[in-house]
Amino acid sequence: MSVEKVAVVVAGGSGMGAAAARRLAADGFKVAILSSSGKGEALAKELGGLGVTGSNQSNDDLQRLVDLTLERYGRIDVLVNSGGHGPRAPILEITDEQWHTGMDVYLLNVIRPVRIVAPQMVKQKGGAIINISTAWVVEPSPMFPTSAVFRAGLAAYTKIFSNTYASDNVRMNNVLPGWIDSLPATEERRDSVPMQRYGTSEEIAATIAFLASEGAGYITGQNIRVDGGIIRAI
């Protein structure tokens, strides 16, 4: 008898997180979704899964999500970490408090759930963690300073995690979206993309689904750009 696969999507109530939850459910995963808005619970109900209203900045809420998931399904095979939007301002005008908020939104949003979920994956001898990051990790943009700084930190965290847990068959990769249709569209941004269009949340979800699949079983510690060719550095 085949084992039922389970995916946890953090910050999955809307945008790319919600698209990932839909795609994974379509691929046969049971899904558990955390969101702060309540949209995650509604989406989970629609998909026949488990929804929790709570914050990815709360260890208690994350622990509740994981406990309920294990209670219902007995395992966690995939963890998808999405997030919100952090402070934006000219770099010298960002306050200490705003930098701390950026760290919560763009780095600790991954570290917290991974700390809770990874031991279960190690116990299972398998699991895939996929973090939604940004295309501007390698070439940081002054438009998104807190995102660029802390997601560069996320790239380092991902390499260390992957080196540590690859032998347990627990993988971690980052998806790096460019301009995606979950963001407000502008002509200037569209023109900056070699493909001359915004990407779709569904394209990000398809990349996540691949990284969650057995076909990506030899991929870990990577930053996968899905940006229409904006960043072409090696």
TrEMBL record:
Domain of life: Bacteria
InterPro entries reported for this sequence: NAD(P)-bd_dom_sf, SDR, SDR_fam
Any Pfam family hit: adh_short_C2
Xref: CDD domains: BKR_like_SDR_like
Cross-referenced SUPFAM superfamilies: NAD(P)-binding Rossmann-fold domains
Protein family according to the UniProt entry: Belongs to the short-chain dehydrogenases/reductases (SDR) family.
Name of the protein: SDR family oxidoreductase
